[in-house]
Design brief:
The chain has a 4-stranded antiparallel sheet, with no helix packed on it. It has one domain. β2 and β3 form a beta hairpin. Helix content is 0%, strand content 69%. The protein is elongated, with a radius of gyration of 16 Å. The protein is mainly beta. Bound molecules: zinc ion. Zinc ion binds next to loops. The site of zinc ion has 8 residues, from loops.
Amino acid sequence: MFLGCLCVDETRRVTRSKPAPGACGACNGGCSKVRVRRVHRVCFIPVWCSWNREVICTRCRAHLHEY
Ligand SMILES: [Zn+2]
């Protein structure tokens, strides 16, 4: 009998960032635009990856929004 052992995990890596106008609502810190690469893995095998552009706070790392 096959007992599936699926461990799905996701690795996020910020590949590029640059300063963005605006301020964080939580700590009033500066913002930066980042490109995030997400690699989704199933049982440690990379299955797919996706790219996201996000605006994050450089001080508290809060997610402000995606664009
Ligand atoms: Zn903040």
